[in-house]
Amino acid sequence: MDQPLSLVALETSPPSFSAEAAASMAQEIFGIGGTAHPLYGERDQNFRIKTAAGSNIILKILGPNEDPGSVEFQTEALTHIAMMDPSLPVPRVRRTVSGEAYTRITDERGIPHIIRALDFQPGLVMDGVEPSPVLLRHAGGTLARLNLALANFFHPAAGQRIVWDLRRIVDLRPSSKLIEDVETRKLIEAVLDRFIAFLPQMSRLRHQMVHNDLHPGNMLVDDAATQVTGLLDFGDMIHAPLVFDVAVTAAETVGDMPPIEYGTEIVAGYDAVMPLQEAEFPALFEAIIARHALSATIHAWRRHNDPAGAEKLGALSALSAPAIEAYLRAGRDEVVAKFRAAAAAKAGTANLAERRFHALGRGLELSYAEPVHLVRGEGVFLYAPDGTRYLDAYNNVPSVGHGNRKVAAAIARQMETLCTNTRYLHESIVEYAERLTATLPKELDTCLFVNSGSEANDAAYRIAKIVTGKTGAIVMEHAYHGVTDVVAALSPYYGPFVQPLAPFVQTLPSPDTDADPVEAARRAIAALRESGHGVAMLLIDSAFVSNGIVNVPQGWFAAVAGEVRKAGGLVVGDEVQSGFGRMGDEFWGFATHGVVPDLVTLGKPMANGHPTGAVVARRELLDAFTSRIEFFSTFGGNPVSAAAALATLDELQSRNLQDNAHTTGAKLREEIRGLNHPVLGEVRGSGLMVGVQVNGNAALAKGIANATRRNRVLIGTEGPAGNVLKIRPPLPFGPEHVEIFVEALRASLP
Ligand code: PMP
Predict the structure, then answer these.
(1) Cβ(137)–Cβ(225) under 8 Å?
(2) Would you give the distance in Å from CA 541 to the centre of its chain?
(3) Cβ 213 vs Cβ 247: under 8 Å
(4) pLDDT the model gives residue 178
(5) Please, what is the end-to-end C-alpha distance for the chain in angstroms?
C-alpha cells in the first residue's frame, strides 16, 4: 500500500545524542549555558536545558526525515501568533547566536539533523489531570484565541500532507482492515465511510490555518488545573476546516465524565470567544467521531507495522470505540442541540452586551475587551451565569464583601419597616453620625448626608465658598472627584479637550515629581488671587488614585495644606477612595499624611454598595453653611442608607478589616514584587490600595488587565499615562486570595 509520507516519518525513531552533547550544542549554537535533561519526543529528541539563572529552554533535535520547510512554517506561525495575541501561551522561538530559527548538525554516522530551541513553558501536562468544566471551557476559549490569532496567517507548507488530516481518511480507509476486533472494525469503517460521504459538506465550511493536534497531551495547565498555561507542538498545522481544531480537542479530551460532556464544555468555551457558524455544529459532530475513527485506524496500522510506536497511541485508541458509540447513541441532532445550548448560554452574554448598547448607548464603557457578565457575588468572588468564578481585585465599593448578608439583611429589614428622610426624627442616622465621627479626629464632628462621592464633593465646595467668601479651588493635576458639573470642573482627569480647566481651578503637580509643594501651592494661590477667585478650598484624594497611586513624600500634603490655610482656604480631604480602613495603617487616608482636614467627603465603600455619601465637617463650618442655605437631600441619610452604613461599619470594625488590609496588602505587594518580571516596575500603595507601574504604555497595561480577566481575576488600570495596574479588592481579601491573584498575574504577563 502506498503510505503517506508522515506514516513513514512515524516509523523512524528519534535521534540519540547524549545529554552532554546537547548541553554543549545549546551553548555553542544558541549561546545558552546550562545542564541538559532528556524529555520524551515521538519523532524529535528533546532536552530541557536548565540555565544557572533559572530559565529553561527546550532543545529539539529533529529526526533525519524532518523537513526544514516545516520548521520554517512553525517558526513563522509562532512568531505570528505571538504578535497577534501576545498573552497566548505559545512557545517563543529561540534564535541561534547568528539569528537563525534553526541550524543543522550531524550525528556520528554523518546523518544531518535540524536543531532548534524554544522557551520552556511551565505547567502540568493536561492529560495528567481530570479536567474540570472550568478548565475545559478555558481550554476551548484558548483554542479559539489560537484560531483567531492564526486566522490571517498563511504559509505554503500549510498544504502539507499529514496522516492526521481528517480529509485523508480516504487514503487511510484501506488500513481499517487491520483492526482485529470485528465489531470494532465494523463500527470504525461505518464512521470512516460516513465521513467520506460528509466531506463535500465540510469543504463548504470556513477554512483557515488550524493547529490540528491540540489534545490534552499538547496542553499545559496551572497547578490548580483551572486554566491552560501552555500550547505545544505545532508540527501538524494545516489549512483546513476550522471545526477540525475543535473536533480534535473535543474528541481527545477524555476522563471520568461521559465523552459528550467534555465536548460540550469545550464547545461552550470555544464559542464564547469565537462563535461557531450554524453549519459547523453538525460538521463538528461528524469530525469528532471521524477523529476517533482515524486514531483507531492509525493505531491498527501502527500495531501492524511498528508495534513499539503503537504502544504510545494505545491508551487513547482504546477509548475511540466507546466514545464513538456514546456519540452515535445520543445521535447527531441531540448532540448538536446540547452543543448549541451550551454555546447559547455563553452567547447570552454577547446578546446582553448588544441589548445594552441599544438601551444605554455605545458610549458607556464596559470593562475589558471581553465584557464580564455577572449574576452573583460572594466575599471577594464574582460569578458569571455559567458559574465561572472571578476573583475581584478591583472593586472597593463592596468593602465588607460582595453579597454581605448582614448589610443585605439590614437594608431589607429597614426597607420593610420605614424609609423616609432626615426631616423626621429617626434613631439610626443619628447613631450612625455618632459612630462615624467617633472614628474621626474630634474636630470633625458634624455630618451632612448625601448619596454619592460626587454629591459630597459638590456640597463641600459649596460649604467652602459660603464659609470663605471665595470661589477658587486647588486640585491635583489629573485629579478625579466626580460627575456633577462643578465637580467635573474640579477633575482635570477628564482632559482639556473634554473639560477645559475652569478659571476658578488651579492644579498642583503630582507629589512624585520634583516640584516643591510649598512653591507649587503658592503659585496656585497667587494665580487664583490674580483671577479674582481667591482660595476657597484645597481638595485632595489621600490615596492619589488618579495620579497612579503614587508615593507621597512625608509632609507633602501638610505643606500644601499649610499654604492654603494661610491664604484663608479650607482643606477638604476626599476620602471616597482612601477612607474606611482601606489604607491599612490608618482608618482614614488623611491620617497617613499627618493632616486633619476641615471637611472630609465620603462615598463608595460607606454602605457596601448602597448609594450613600457624606460630608463630615467642623461644626462651625457646617452651621455657617446650613444657616444660610436650606440644604435638603431627599434620599441623603434616609433610614435605609443609615441601616446599610451602620451594618457596614459594624462589619469593618468587628472583622478588623483595616488590620487585614494592612497585613494582606503588605503580602500582596511583596508577592507582586517577587514576580520579578521586567514588565512590572514599582509596586506602590498602602493597605489594599495597590498600584503597579507597568514598564510600557497604556495599551500594554490594558492588555495585562484583559489577560488577568481571562485568567479570572479582575483588576483595572490608572494613572495619567494609563500604565499603572489598579488593584483595590474588597477588604476581606486574605492571603489565600493573594496566591490566586499572583498566579493569575504571572500567567497574564507577556
Ligand atoms: N472622589 C474620588 C476620589 C473618586 O474616586 C470618585 C469616584 N471614582 C468620586 C469622588 C465620585 O464618587 P461617585 O462616583 O460615587 O459620585
Answers:
(1) no
(2) 27
(3) no
(4) 93
(5) 48
Residue 643 grid cell = 441601616
- From the CA of 483, how far away is ligand 1's center (Å)? 8
Cα separation of 121 and 230, whole Å? Answer: 6
Neighbours of 516 (CB within 10 A): 13
C-alpha cell at 412: 431589607
Residue 614 Cα distances to 65, 262, 453, 600, angstroms: 76, 52, 7, 8
Dihedral over Cα of 718, 719, 721, 724: its sign:
negative
pTM of the model: 0.65
**Residue from 399, 449, 454, 475 whose mutation best tests the ligand 1 pocket (most atoms within 8 A of CB):** 454
Which run of H or of E encompasses 118? strand 112-119
What's 245's DSSP letter?
H
Instruction: Please answer whether residues 41 and 14 qualify as being in contact, where contact means their C-beta atoms are separated by less than 8 angstroms.
Output: yes
Complete DSSP assignment for 196-253 = HHHHHHHTTS-EEEE-----GGGEEE-TTSSSEEEE---TT-EEEETHHHHHHHHHH-
Q: Which three cell numbers stand for residue 426?
A: 429617626
Q: How far is the CA of 492 from the centre of ligand 1 (A)?
A: 13
Sign of dihedral through CA atoms 521, 522, 528, 529? Answer: positive
- Pairing type for strands 45-51 and 103-106 reads unpaired
> Tell me: the pLDDT tens digits for 367-404?
987 789 998 999 999 998 777 899 999 999 999 999 99
Distance CA 143, CA 231 (A): 9
Alpha-carbon distance of 280 to 221, in angstroms, equals 28
The three-state secondary structure class of 121 is: coil
Q: Residues 21-34: pLDDT tens digits?
A: 999 999 999 999 99
Nearest to 296 by CA among 214, 213, 210, 173: 173
Task: Give strand pairing partners of 506.
Answer: 474
Q: How many CB atoms lie within 10 A of CB 353?
A: 13
Ligand 1 pocket, residue 541 CB under 6 Å? yes
Show the cell assigned to 401.
464583601
Coil, strand, or helix at residue 438? helix
User: 3-state DSSP call for residue 475?
Assistant: strand
Whether 141 and 265 have beta carbons less than 8 Å apart is answered as no
Q: What pLDDT, on the 0 to 100 scale, is given for residue 317?
A: 62
- pLDDT bin (cut points 50, 70, 90) of residue 361 is confident
With 80 as the cut, is the pLDDT of residue 310 above it? no
Pull the grid cell for residue 389. Answer: 468564578
Helices (H), 114-226: 133-150, 169-172, 182-202
Dihedral, CA atoms, 557, 559, 562, 566, nearest 10 degrees? -130
Q: Rounded to whole angstroms, how far apart are CA atoms 625 and 612?
A: 21
* 577 Cβ below 6 A of ligand 1: yes
Q: Of all helices (H) and strands (E), which one includes residue 473? A: strand 472-476
Mean pLDDT, the chain, integer = 93
| C-beta 6 within 6 A of ligand 1 | no
* Element holding 617 (H helix, E strand): strand 613-617
Distance CA 745, CA 750 (A): 10
Give the residue among 528, 587, 586, 518 at the shortest CA–CA distance from 557: 518
Q: Which residues, 6+ apart, have CB-to-CB distance to 224 below 8 Å?
A: 740, 743
Give me the half-sphere count of Cα atoms (radius 13 Å) on the Cβ side of residue 50. Answer: 6
